[in-house]
Amino acid sequence: PLSDTYSPPDAITKENPLRVIIAGGGVGGLALANSLKGNPLVQVRILERTDSFKRFGGPIQLASNALTILESICEKDVFEDIMSKFTYTGDKENGIKDGIRDEWYAKFDLGTPALDRNMPLTGVIERPDLQ
Predict the structure, then answer these.
(1) How far apart are CA 125 and CA 14, in angstroms?
(2) 51-99 confidence digits (pLDDT tens)
(3) Per residue, what are the HEC states of 11-73?
(4) Looking at residue 105, what DSSP letter applies?
(5) Residue 119, φ and ψ in degrees, nearest 5
(6) Residue 40: count of CB within 10 angstroms of its CB
(7) Of all helices (H) and strands (E), which one includes residue 104?
(8) Residue 114 has pLDDT above 80, yes or no
(9) Which residue from 110, 105, 8 is spatially nearest to 63, judged by alpha carbons?
(10) Residue 123: closest CA among 71, 95, 80, 88
């Protein structure tokens, strides 16, 4: 517990780094931790509820902008490994579809905006391949 006399330090230094707690070792948490790990003024701790890897959930969709960020924070061989297991969907027909009546409620183009901005196409990857 904090006492009534606690006062935060005046500055963030190597001796007194900013302490960051990240809740969850998923894609976002690990990406944030990875981007902060090289900063000597930041001390990172990841809290994960799961004590061991368990397969759960379906594939994770990564949009073009997310892939661009991932590429900028990952080591080249790690990003290439991720992309080798990636299934592109941005070059397919995309939208919201009624799976029973086979009717489209809305369609949208994911490919053209990505290609116009020289970004990778949206796609999916299985969770274990990303983790």
Answers:
(1) 38
(2) 666 666 678 889 999 999 888 888 899 889 989 999 999 999 999 999 8
(3) CCCCCCCEEEEEECCCHHHHHHHHHHCCCCCEEEEEECCCCCCCCCCCCEEECHHHHHHHHHH
(4) E
(5) -110, 155
(6) 8
(7) strand 103-108
(8) yes
(9) 110
(10) 88
